[in-house]
Amino acid sequence: MKKPLSKKFAFIFILTVFGAILVTSLISNYMIDKQFNQYLLEEHQRKIEKVKKLVGELYNPKDPSEKLDDRQIKRYAMLEDLYIQINDVDGNMIFSSGQSHLLHKKMMGSMMGRMMNKKMDTLLGEYIEKEFPIIKNGENIGTIVIGYFGISNISGRDIQFKNTMNQSFVISITVTLLLAFIISGILSKQMTKPLEKITKVANEMRNGNLQIRADVNTDTIEIHELCQAIHYLGDTLQQQEKLRKRLTSDMAHEIRTPLTTLQSHVEAFMDGIWEPTEERLKSCYDEILRLKKLVDHLKDLARLEQDHLYLNKSHFNLSSTIKQIIKTFQPQYLKKNLKIIMNVLPGVEVFMDEDKIKQILFNLLSNAYKYSYEGGRVEIGLKQEDVLTIYVKDEGIGISKENLPHIFERFYRAETSRSRETGGAGIGLTITKALVKAHGGNIQVESKEGEGTLFVIQFPKEDVL
Ligand code: ADP
Q: Distance, CA 428 to ligand 1 centroid (Å)?
């Protein structure tokens, strides 16, 4: 069964506090009890020693003129809750303190026991009598009988002390639990309120409102990060939505242009208005090629997105491959009077998918061609330092700051009208990036509008050598 986070949090908090108090109380109660019993035992022993000493001092059977001061012993017996009896050497009782005060204590103990929900016997212990010899100047002059309740010989004050202790434990547990309850309520509210807001925003996004953002002010790192992640998700979805809409219109336009040309040409042929000359047929053929290229690009992209990027790696000379690709571009570059500068380190042997590397270079070089001004310069380089670096630098139209972060996205074209003129569909760089990543590398771009663009690809040596 699902439970709200606030309830779970409060439950865990209270459980933890309760557990902590329980353990602390049990341990401290046990320790205090142990110390207290030890103290009582010592105290009791001290009392008995004192009685023995007192009687030894006061009782002198050899001197009948010295009468035993039994009031002092009686007072002591009453004060310390003891029964004291003195016998002479023949066993005849000379003094007895009487047991009435002990019976009174027994009654008190029973009352206390009932209050503390304990049996009197466990509280006071059994009634015990002990007999000790009275020795004076090394001579046995009689015996003393001392009676009391249990070894604890617990007094009213002692019981009260224990009672107060237990009461204070109960009170502190109750107060702490009450406080824990209030604090957990406040804390869990503080914790769950921003989460509720974020959930609301996420639900709104699900319903299509991608502009909505959560107004969350929190100092909890995880919640802050969650909020950022949701906002990032919103931004991405918004961007994707924009791209999707643009894709539909772009694709429609991209397909309609060659189709319209083809339609008008073929109609003119059919109506006999135009002779199907070689030149006119070539123009139809070019349009068909354009359509085919578009479909191929879409196919490539679909393959990439389905994650079926299989690399067919082999050992080859990357320097030679780059030079070979540049060679194939030379006639095209000449048409635009572009100067090619090669800065390629010779003899770099790699273990990569050659076709995919060719495709990467093809995309970058055709972009450099498309977006360069007449008579510009394009520099292609290969370096091998800590990493393997390939770069393509042009002095073309450049990319604006706003467009730069998006150029690797699907169907993103920095300047729609100009890109359309150049025949691009905004797919080349998406594919390039995916191919670079598949080889464990990364691609970066630096560009200034009107000045030119630099693409830098880096591969970790261990992945490609
Ligand atoms: P396209 O097929 O439209 O060229 P890409 O994915 O290759 O698609 O590039 C995306 C966009 O990035 C292009 O439409 C273009 O606006 C911009 N771009 C790419 N390379 C360059 C470059 N060398 N100079 C200027 N802009 C470029």
A: 8
